[in-house]
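Q: Predict the bound structure with magnesium ion.
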Amino acid sequence: MQAHSILSITEEELSRIVLDIHDGPVQYQFTALSLLAEIQNEVQQTQPRSDLAPRLAQVAMLLESSLYEIRSFLGAFRPPEFRKRSLISIFEGLIFQHEEWTHNTVEFVAEHVPAEVMLPVKIALYRILQEALSNTYRHAGVEQYTVRVWGDDGDICLTVTDEGCGFDPAQLAQKLDENTQHIGLRGMKERVALLGGAFHLTSQPGQGTRLFIRVPASV
Ligand SMILES: Nc1ncnc2c1ncn2[C@@H]1O[C@H](COP(=O)(O)OP(=O)(O)OP(=O)(O)O)[C@@H](O)[C@H]1O
Ligand SMILES: [Mg+2]
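A: Predicted complex:
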């Protein structure tokens, strides 16, 4: 199977999973909550002194929290309309959302990005930037970072840099043998490899982190 079709299928499957969760379990939980509200009313009228009311309230609270969490998760995974939107507009949307959620500031610079970027490349770059922003937010310990994207001779280059705590990538590679966690960086590398691109991560404790990616605009 061609690399670009693998990347697109994964994204289509993800969209389907998001829809399935939304249309199935989320709707059941909504229905359960409204049935529960009816029962709570009835209990309040018929048995106002029983200990049922606080217990039912606790169930309702748990259901609401779980609904809230599932819906935030679905929001984060629902991909934008890749086909219709340009790469820059997709990046702007993602960065805006990241700033809203984290209250951090992302400096975004885009230069000479080709107007035509193929769908699998857009999808891969979107997922890579999403993970890079998430890593910087979760691990770097800074409130400001920079994203640059530019076109170069038919390729698209992307850097995500921060001046945060940094880390030792060699040590991480050793740890990976024993521990299969840390799927973020591996996923980025795999996406870049499928597109025949280049991936460089430079980091050092106390010296910040720089991620550089180069991929062809069309595959
Ligand atoms: N910008 C960064 N600043 C500091 N440390 C980082 C940065 N990016 C990555 N790291 C380090 O590299 C590790 C591996 O990152 P990776 O994205 O693979 O896994 P993760 O973020 O820990 O978990 P997940 O699988 O959810 O992505 C992180 O745990 C962190 O220690
Ligand atoms: Mg990560």
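A: The pocket of adenosine-5'-triphosphate (ligand 1) is lined by residues 135-136, 138-140, 162, 164-167, 172, 181-185, 209 (CB under 6 Å).
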